[in-house]
Predict the 3D structure of the following.
Amino acid sequence: MGRRAITESMVREAMGRGDKKLEIPRDAVVTAAAEDLANARGVVLIRMDVQAVTPTAGAVTNPVRGLPDRSGPVVIGSDHGGFQLKVTLAAHVSALGYTVLDAGTKDETPCDYPDYAFTVAQMVADGKAWRGIMIDGAGIGSCMAVNKVPGVRGACCHNEFTARNACEHNNANVLTLGSRVLGVEVCKAIVKVFLETPFAGGGTRRGSPRSRTSRSDLEVRPNPNRVMIAASAPRRTFAFQEVKILQTTFVLKSTRSEYHENSYSFWT
């Protein structure tokens, strides 16, 4: 399991309880916003050794290590720009029959979306929630943030098709949405598809099933068809030159002068 992220929202929760001390795992990563807030408000972060806890009966299975409990909680978070949409979608998710966990923010006071994105992602990675939903202005920044947490597969979706594809083919477990680019009813439809679409179990290529999500490194597969790279060279000509990269053969080919300089096109 990855190192736990200590975010601004966690410090605020401690402040809300009146605590002046916040115990955190010894190897935890403290975000800059959390550290600044703790220093400003006099909250002492105490690093401690955390013993492994045996999962209790009925706990949500971590989707990274096993099949997810589809009846498990759904955690939802947002920054100030996505707060109103978060309130609406939280009620929508609850109406669909799921338990909703609110990761903040609690109002429209300006805040930093990465703090809440990390909270949502960490709860999913820790198995405290089955799936997560994070909302900011465009959905892109939060998607980048949640994917930095090991075990999280975040997808920024903008319609029902992308949501279905993300779950069915990529086993996405966190959905990010943009409150400023999507309407409320569209977001409701996306969320419904995201929560109801199961993972298909990986793709097949030439009869050999392989899970796409199990690959930790980017892989370039050998292709019997050479990929042609057309590189512009105004008023110049070049001979063919073969370049081998990761067992895949690319052929560099000169083009006519009317191509824009430094432009590239690819085809098989």
Summary: Residues 51-69, 204-211, 214-268 have pLDDT under 50 and may be disordered. Helices lie at 8-16, 32-41, 83-95, 113-125, 140-146, 160-170, 184-196.
